[in-house]
Specification:
alpha+beta, 15 helices, 29 strands, binds N~2~-sulfamoyl-L-arginine, binds zinc ion
Length: about 700
């Protein structure tokens, strides 16, 4: 379950503390209030230092959120029974948000006050409140109507499970004309129902581009050189329920009356997943809107950001319908993800941003830690082929708002997320933005600040980060370009069919994109590289033979006690491997700390596998200095153990990759007149002569 790294720890612990910031104590209700009627749902952080604790927590039927770290899980407690279940299980916890209804109500009050006193916010739209689903659709339609040459609106091909249209807009010079071969920048929002700011930022960026086109030279140039596609709300069913219920919770709730007592919980205000009511089955349109309740992450639905094909079915995604990260019955089983799959497969999306809340992060592929990916070689497996470029862009975007730029797996493992599929299948860069420090849908003024930047980030914010992403999308150095001569008006088509690896199998993917040659008989086509990153050659570090140094200890540790061993890394090596072994079926865990100059300890790794699984921590390029290796006994007996620390040098080698080609066809009057296989790398501009296509 837990693997050898510190991932998740920094970000999520920071996150947990941050939840308290800005929280008022108004309406605090003691968690153990005797009257069951008066108990309010609260967000708590349950301490789960051991794998046994985590497994125990899983069995209590509580509303676990997906916010969890190595030693805690955030849980929504809905009833006194939930509190009792934790107490009976002997699990301790801290209260983070003592009353979610009050919090929601307070947010609503802040929002109402802001709206009342704000004629126009500094946002591109001037809006002063969260949009409803209807507002999104109306805004997109209005944008297209007022700028017919610059904006088109469209509905994605598959309606939602509850029968709603999923809408988007496309922005570009002569957007209604034929495809000109420009690179596509794609921005997505609201995969997760409760993450309202993720749609707001997508929509505001669209309006920003449209409103400033023609007056702001930078935006005009970017729009002229690209097509920008924005789908602000993908999970339309879930968002509609969350947004509608969130608004129902008002301050009367805090006085013990009003809507809150009707809802009993925050209703669907904190719903995460989509509206799949019955696992693997379709239900009549409207079933979900009318009947289903999904408080928090638990309950009905598929987690859309676990349903894409890339490594689908692997770690960080659940196969249990009621779980917050339920991956769905099959890869791309949901209409929402199917829409995005078809959209990306039919266009040359060179850069993609998918917005979420919260944690102030910019995440880049991949979602599962390298040493977990099946077939990976070496320890740990190398990063994605484009790691250096992916990191550079991620860092630059994160710097606009003071976010942290990291691999997605450093938050926690995920498989089946949108960009892990799209990056590995198309080579287009993809990032997750986790907007805001501490809430799924904070008071609206915070949404404004995150977009435009506040304090030291004033004038930057996600607006500037998104513009930097768009600059990347149009930069030929980060994708590939095909140019040449071809008959005016001919249709050029690029196709590729391949197997995308899921966790323990594969799915068939087909990319099929087209453009029309202009009247001058020349074409320039911005495309993704022909070889997918997932099959490219990559550098791996393989541990070579014997350790260059090793030390081992044996000992015993009494129940619920720990034993520390010191170990010094006194030479530059590639890997420190620590193993903890014992002969019995007991639960020992291992934690590794580095000793700082002042004697304090910083945790640098831990391993907390299930009972009887042995523990291992790997540290890549360990810094010189002293380390503390801590053996912790969670068993009721006193087993004897063996601890070893080994230093290794690694050999860097290149695993040879495959070379893939696009199949380029030139069509005239619907008939293929020329077919050329094209191999083109990232950053390469390739001339492909298609004049033969014009010969009879
Ligand atoms: O778990 C998720 O889907 C995202 N976090 S959230 O709290 N908004 O639910 C993070 C997904 C990042 N993972 C990858 N991009 N692989
Ligand atoms: Zn999310």
């Amino acid at each position: 379950m837990m693997h050898s790294s510190v991932r998740g720890r920094t970000a999520l612990c920071g996150l947990a503390t941050a939840v308290l910031v800005g929280f008022t104590t108004t309406g605090l209700i003691a968690p153990a209030a005797a009257d069951p009627e008066s108990f309010r749902p609260q967000l708590v952080t349950v301490d789960t230092p051991t794998s046994a604790d985590r497994e125990l927590l899983q069995t209590l039927g509580l509303d676990l959120t997906e916010h969890a770290g190595q030693d805690y899980v955030e849980v929504v407690l809905h009833t006194l029974d939930d509190v009792a279940a934790l107490a009976t299980a002997g699990l301790s916890y801290d209260v983070r948000i003592p009353d979610l209804l009050v919090r929601e109500a307070e947010n609503n009050q802040v929002n109402a006050a802001y709206a009342a006193t704000t004629a126009t916010s500094p946002l591109p739209s001037g809006r002063d409140a969260y949009r409803t689903l209807d507002d999104y659709d109306a805004d997109m339609a209005a944008l297209a109507a007022s700028h017919p040459d610059l904006v088109t609106s469209f509905s994605l091909p598959h309606p939602s499970l509850d029968g709603k249209q999923i809408n988007g807009i496309e922005i570009g010079q002569n957007v209604t004309g034929p495809e000109q071969g420009l690179p596509v920048f794609l921005m997505l929002g609201v995969h997760h129902a409760r993450e309202w700011p993720s749609g707001e930022h997508a929509m505001e960026f669209a309006i920003d581009l449209v409103e400033n086109y023609g007056s702001d030279p930078r935006i005009t140039d970017l729009v002229n050189r690209s097509r920008v596609i924005v789908v602000p709300v993908l999970n339309v069913d879930g968002f509609d329920k969350s947004r509608t219920d969130g608004e129902l919770i008002d301050l009367r709730a805090a006085d013990g009356g009003g809507t809150a007592t009707i809802l009993g919980t925050p209703g669907n205000a904190y719903m995460r997943k989509n509206c799949r009511v019955v696992d693997g089955q379709d239900t009549p349109d409207g079933t979900c809107a009318l009947a289903a309740t999904s408080p928090g992450g638990y309950g009905i639905g598929v987690d859309l950001n676990r349903n894409y094909g890339g490594y689908w079915g692997g770690p960080g995604a659940s196969d249990v319908f009621a779980d917050p990260t339920y991956r769905g019955a099959a890869a791309f089983s949901e209409p929402e993800t199917q829409n995005i799959r078809e959209l990306i497969s039919g266009r040359q999306v060179t850069t993609l941003i998918t917005n979420h809340t919260f944690s102030n992060l910019v995440l880049r592929p991949n979602g599962a830690a390298p040493d977990l990916v099946p077939g990976s070689e070496g320890i740990p497996l190398g990063d994605p082929h484009d790691e250096a470029a992916l990191k550079a862009l991620g860092d630059e975007m994160a710097a606009q708002n003071g976010y942290t730029s990291q691999h997605a797996w450093e938050l926690y493992d995920t498989t089946g997320s949108v960009e892990d599929w799209s990056y590995n299948a198309t080579g287009g860069f993809g990032y997750t933005f986790e907007i805001g420090p501490d809430e799924f849908h904070p008071p609206f003024p915070k949404v404004v600040d995150e977009y435009l930047g506040a304090g030291e980030y004033s004038g930057k914010g996600n607006r500037e980060a998104f513009l930097i992403a768009l600059e990347n999308a149009v930069d030929p150095a980060t994708h590939s370009v095909l140019t040449g001569e071809a008959p005016a008006g001919a249709t050029l088509r690029l196709r590729k069919t391949f197997a995308t690896p899921t966790w323990d199998g594969s799915i068939q993917d087909s990319l099929d994109t087209a453009m029309t040659v202009g009247p001058d008989g020349r074409y320039t086509w911005h495309v993704n590289p022909s070889t997918r990153p997932v099959v490219m050659d990559r550098q791996v570090e393989t541990v070579s033979g014997d350790p260059v140094a090793e030390e081992s200890w044996t000992g015993t540790t009494a129940p619920l006690q720990s034993t520390d061993q010191e170990f010094t890394v006194d030479q530059d090596v590639d890997l420190l491997e620590i193993n903890l072994d014992w002969p019995t079926a007991d639960d020992l865990d291992l934690e590794v700390y580095r000793t700082n100059a002042d004697g304090s300890l910083t945790q640098v790794g831990s391993s907390g596998n299930s009972v009887n699984e042995k523990e291992r921590v790997l540290l890549q390029d360990p810094a010189l200095g002293t380390y503390v290796l801590r053996v912790i006994n969670f068993a009721s007996v006193t087993p004897s153990w063996t601890l070893t620390a080994e230093l290794f040098d690694a050999d860097t080698s290149t695993v040879p990759g495959l070379v893939e080609n696009w199949t380029l066809t030139c069509e005239r009057d619907g008939a293929v007149a020329q077919t050329v296989p094209v191999v083109v790398d990232r950053g390469q501009q390739l001339q492909v002569d298609l004049t033969a296509c014009g010969r009879p």
